[in-house]
TrEMBL record:
The keyword NADP does not apply. The lineage of its organism: Bacteria, Bacillati, Actinomycetota, Actinomycetes, Kitasatosporales. It comes from Streptomyces niveus. The keyword Transcription regulation applies. Keywords: Sigma factor, Transcription, Transcription regulation. It comes from the Bacteria. Residues 131-180 form the RNA polymerase sigma factor 70 region 4 type domain. Residues 31-100 form the RNA polymerase sigma-70 region domain. It holds the Pfam family Sigma70_r4_2. This is RNA polymerase sigma factor. Belongs to the sigma-70 factor family. ECF subfamily.
Length: 186
């Protein structure tokens, strides 16, 4: 009797990525179906230009199709969706750089006064106690920098491009956020 092959819907994102690495188109389609809605929301929180978001989505999934083996063969920990977000965040920064010479940088969603970002809400729900309280007391501009540097894993330069501010401002705000967090936790 042959072992039963699991349905794609039963696989987690990491297993799907391993299958994508072998050229499994069905696994790629399932990964896209599961991850594209939240990825689009996260990108829109950082960029108001729908054209850039669409380009970044396309570039991200093309990169995933081409380089899924890099994740599947990685001995480094991490989740499949984390790896996917890292690719998307870097592609968004690249898109901002490409457009910087041709037009004004897109307005960050936070500057438009929209609802809190999904990851802020998730973070508030999962980070409790003193750390959660300290995060919630940070000024919004400090939380934005902290989110980009810590949660999204971007460099200072990438954060500066993403948030459309000088690198020195990013460093200053990151330092102010660390000091405020330290003060709140002691």
């Amino acid at each position: 009797m042959r072992p039963r092959r699991r349905k794609l819907s039963e696989l987690d994102e990491e297993q799907l990525l391993r299958r994508v690495a072998t050229g499994d188109r069905g696994a790629f389609d399932e990964l896209y179906r599961r991850t594209s809605p939240w990825l689009a929301v996260r990108l829109r929180r950082r960029c108001a230009d729908e054209q850039i978001v669409a380009e970044v989505m396309q570039e991200t999934y093309l990169a995933v199709w081409r380089a899924a083996g890099a994740f599947a063969g990685s001995a480094v920990g991490g989740t499949g969706v984390g790896w996917l977000w890292t690719i998307a965040a870097h592609r968004l920064v690249d898109a901002f750089r490409r457009r910087a010479h041709h037009a004004e940088p897109p307005v960050a969603a936070a500057e438009r006064g929209t609802a809190p970002a999904a990851e802020d809400e998730a973070l508030a729900g999962t980070v409790g106690g003193d750390v959660g309280d300290a995060l919630r007391t940070l000024a919004p501009e400090l939380r934005l920098v902290l989110r980009a540097l810590v949660l999204d894993g971007l460099s200072v330069r990438e954060t500066a491009v993403l948030l459309d501010m000088p690198e020195g401002t990013v460093k200053t705000r990151a330092r102010r956020a660390r000091i405020a967090m330290r003060k709140a936790l002691t």
